[in-house]
Amino acid sequence: MDEILKIEHLNKKYEDLTVLEDISLEVKKGEVVVIVGPSGCGKSTFLRCINGLETIQDGKVLLDGEVVNPSSGNIKKYREKIGMVFQSYDLFPHKTIIENLMLAPIKVQKRKKDEVKKEAEELLDKVGLSSKKDNYPRQLSGGQKQRVAIVRALIMHPEVLLFDEVTAALDPEMVREVLDVIMELARQDRTMLIVTHEMAFAKAVADRIIFMDGGVIVEDSTPEKFFENPSTDRAKRFLSTFEY
Questions:
Q1: Is the pLDDT of residue 243 over 80?
Q2: Using an 8 Å Cβ cutoff, are 56 and 217 in contact?
């Protein structure tokens, strides 16, 4: 597999607070990397740095060998290539589901309306929501809105997908329907970085597990090794709080 994403010695601070310290990571095309760790350890900030939503003090984020720089004029181009799905769905309440999905491809990528509409309908069908295309976000459940948010990222044809705790705000019965969509994307060899607290899901979907604590990468290993025989006491303590 070819390397698609590379993070070199990334450091992120908020004034005097160091959030990420000397993070280096390489991600190959088609690889699913799951990032786990205690709340507040820097996982979500790390994803936002990769997508250029946060500035960094030191280090580099490279996509296809080119530096992702939030202050550069081409950051919009990189954000099209690095799709991100957040905890909050951020759908426009006054637009229908199909209108939400069509907005960015037409406005940002200047694609033809008919082509975008056809793809949006096909993607909605794949996530089981074709009957909801003319509904408004308020008429959908949390799980349905999150599936729409995933489709909204997919329709931009990103090279890398970032998922930031996408089930954290959902009721337990809605979690499965969203995780099933992500599992299907993994089977399609999509390149993904996923932050999650769902350990059974992490074990099932990941090619690699990154365990973070205190703004650093503590372990980088296979799911089998991490869940069955973690190499650090910190990871062992973390895993002892979960059932998976």
A1: no
A2: no
- In DSSP terms, which residues pair with 194 in a beta bridge? 34, 163
The predicted-structure confidence for 10-31, as pLDDT tens digits, reads as follows 999 998 899 999 999 999 999 9
> Quick count: other Cβ atoms within 10 Å of Cβ 9?
12
The secondary structure of the chain in percent helix, strand, coil, rounded to multiples of 5, reads 40, 25, 35
pLDDT at res. 244:
67
Residue with tokens 């599992």: 183
CA distance 20 to 208: 20
Strand pairing class (66-67; 82-85): unpaired
Closest CA to 103 of 156, 45, 167, 51: 156
SS3 138: helix
CB 169 within 8 A of CB 201: no
pTM metric for this prediction = 0.94
Q: Is the pLDDT of residue 239 over 70?
A: yes
For residue 120, which phi and psi values (nearest 5 degrees)? -60, -45
Structure token pair of residue 22: 């000397």
